[in-house]
Structures are given as structure tokens and as C-alpha cells.
Amino acid sequence: MLIERLNRLPKEVLGRVKFIGSVADEMHMNAYVVGGFVRDLLLGAKNNFDLDIVVEGDGIAFARELSGKLNGRLAHHKAFGTATVVAQDNSKIDIATARKEIYEFPAALPKVTPGAIKDDLGRRDFSINAMAFGINKNNFGQLIDFYAGNDDLKAKKVRALHDLSFIDDPTRILRAARFAERCNFKISPYTLNLIKQAASHKMPEKVSPHRLRDELILILKENEPVKCVKLVEKICGFSFLHPRLVVDQKKISSLEKAAKVMKWFEDNFRHKRKVDKWLVYLMLLLEDLPAAEIRKTADRFAFRSGEIKRMLSFKADCKRAILKLKSELKPSDIHCILDPLSYEVILLILLRANNRSVEKNINNFLHHYNEVRILVGGEDVKKLGIKPGPHFKKLLKQTFHAKLDKGLKTKEEELEFLRRKAKR
């Protein structure tokens, strides 16, 4: 079955896999495609063709040779025996030396030593991610499945590989939820019991916040993140993010409504900047915390400054903006309220307002006022004999507001407005 699925891949992808195998043959190394590529291929859900390759031998030397033959770019991490080759078409090939991992204490980063393919697959999170297939000439397309991952795929089951899986690496709890909901699988009773044991010992809170952040973002970027959030709350809760954070039905309802609002924005404003959906969900998760606690949490997890700014803006500006937008306003007033805010915050204001005036004003801003630009600039003001200074900015702002409110259509009308303002 696997070889049939391989033969259905796009020709350039299959050709790339065979080429990598030929390089491995030249270097007398055993090479394998591993992990998610294999899982998705067996599921018939292949839409990401970035490759994960494991070699029994020096992975960095192999990557260097492959990069040269593909005329690609190479980045390597000597300590872990891993490398990434970016081909000329920008496709990625991740390469690793087959390795064993030893966790010296719970939630630690592992110590890595070279190993065989069985060792490498045995260190992975779940059986469905612990499969490989050979790409050397003598075993091309041969499925390697020491841990019954294919049986679990058929049974639609997420199963951990050993009893200490979530003690060694508690971020696997979040990955279990992500894979279960993405594939519409169930977490096996054995695995669920291990998760609950690890959660009862607060193992997620012992992990580096940066690693938890990365896993949380991946969850919130899933096609159906609300389902993942519900499952995480059920199996371990969100105290790893903040000790007072509880995801109740009210919170779930907000997240579901946010998904609809963002779909509306996506359908109607494809030409605008894409909304960071994951950040909208995170802002709602943290919404009930005081601003100081949101800031503290965001800093602890090392979110980017722009992301933190948007989180705090939602907390600071949402209620105030709703109050203002409930009134009858001029277009320039609406622009002054909404233009300083990110699209993420604007959509959450729309979500929270539940008011027709607010909806109308936000609609008008996004459809009309947000894209208005004046045709005059500083040089035009100079030509009117006005000396440069801070009032330049004020005059241009007044012209912009007049364009919104009075419908100035041409550059001449804007210049005439400037002349009248300058005389005053």
C-alpha cells in the first residue's frame, strides 16, 4: 500500500525522494523518510511535501553533500546532529543523524547519542509518528514500523510509546490533543491515563515556557483550534499558561464566535493583512486576567513585542472603543477610534460589542475609511507659502478628515481646502 501511495505523489516530490536515496547509496548510508510525512501519506492526507530524513551515519556530512548536489542552502546544528537543506524551489529537507535520547531528569532537554533507526523512532512521541520508510535502492518504499503505528492509524488512535513519555517531555500532552483533533482520533486509554498522571504532578509547568509557547501556538493554528482547546482543558487544563485560567463553556462560546468573525473578515477582506488567528484565540483565553497578569504571562512565555502590544491593546481599548462606537459618529471620528488598533483587536471589539451601531461603524471603517488616502503632501503645503513645522502634520490631518467627512474627490479639492485652512 505504501509504495502505491508513494507513486501517487507529485513527480517532483517522488523524484526528490529517490534522488536523496541515491545520494545515501553513494555515501554508503542507510536513509529513511520519517515522522509526519509517513503518517500523512498512509492517511492519504498529504499536502505538505517538506521531508524529514534520518540517516544512520553522519547526518551533517550527508546534508552538506546533498546541499551541494541540489545547489541549496544549508543550516546545521552540530550538537544535535541535525541540518536543514533548503532547495532552490524553497522546499525544505530536514536531516538528522539517527539517535538515542536520554532524559537525565523530568522535563529536561534530552542528551543525544548516535543510534540506529529503531532507536530514533523509539524516542518519538506517538506510535503514529514513529514510522519510516526506506529510500535506498534496496529497500525503497519499505515501511518500517517497530511500534505498530500503522495499526494505530487504522484504529484511529493516539498512543504514547512508553510509560514515562509525558514525564520526559510534558509538551507531548499538547501534541496528543493536537494530533487527536486534527486526525479525528481518540487518545488511547493507556495514553490518557499517563497524561492525567503527568498533569496531576503539574509536569507541564516544569517545562521551559518557550517550548510550551511553541506547542500552544501550533494548537491555536490548527484548522479547528477550539476542539483542541476543549480537549486540552479536559485532559490537563491550562494552569501551565496561568494558574487562574479556566476554559469554561462561556470561554468556548467566545472562541467559537471568534472563529466565525475571522471567517467573515477572511471572506470579505482578502486584500487586507491576514489576521493572526492564533493570537485572537490567545487574547480571548487571557481576557479575564488583569492587564498586569497578561503582561507578566506574555513576558514569561517570551511572545514578540508586537504580539504583546496587541494583547494589552485588547484589554485596554476594547470597552472604551465600544462605548464610543455606539454613538452616531462622523467618518473621521470612526477612523480616529479604529485606525490605531490592529485588525485582531477590531475583530474582538466586533465580537464583544453585540451592538448594531458598533457593527455598522466597524463595517464602514473596514470597507471604506480604512483605505482612504489623501493626494496632497508636504510639498504641496510648502507651495502654498507655509513654512515647514509641526502645523504641517496638523493641516494634512485636517485635509484627510475633510476627505472622509466632506467627500473631497480630487487633488484640486484637497488643495482648495488647504488654501482655505492656510488663510485662517
Keywords:
424 residues, alpha+beta, two-stranded antiparallel ribbon, 11 strands
Terminal Cα separation, in Å? 82 Å
Q: Helix proportion of residues, in percent?
A: 40-55%
Strand order of the largest sheet: 3-4-5-2-1-8-9
Categorize the overall geometry. Answer: globular
Summarize model confidence as the mean pLDDT. Answer: 92
Q: How many distinct beta strands?
A: 11
Characterize the largest beta sheet: strand count, sense, and whether it forms a barrel: 7 strands, mixed
Secondary-structure-based class equals alpha+beta
User: How many distinct helices?
Assistant: 21
Radius of gyration: 28 Å
- Low-pLDDT residue intervals, each spanning 5 or more residues: none
What is the percentage of strand-forming residues? Answer: 5-15%
Structural overview:
There is one protein chain. The chain has 424 residues and is α+β, with helices and mostly antiparallel strands. It is 55% helix and 10% strand. The strands form three sheets. A seven-stranded mixed β-sheet has the order 3-4-5-2-1-8-9. It has a two-stranded antiparallel sheet with strand order 6-7. The chain has a two-stranded parallel sheet with strand order 10-11. Helix 14 packs antiparallel against helix 15, helix 16 crosses helix 18 and helix 20 crosses helix 21. The radius of gyration is 28 Å and the shape is globular. The chain starts with a helix and ends with a helix.
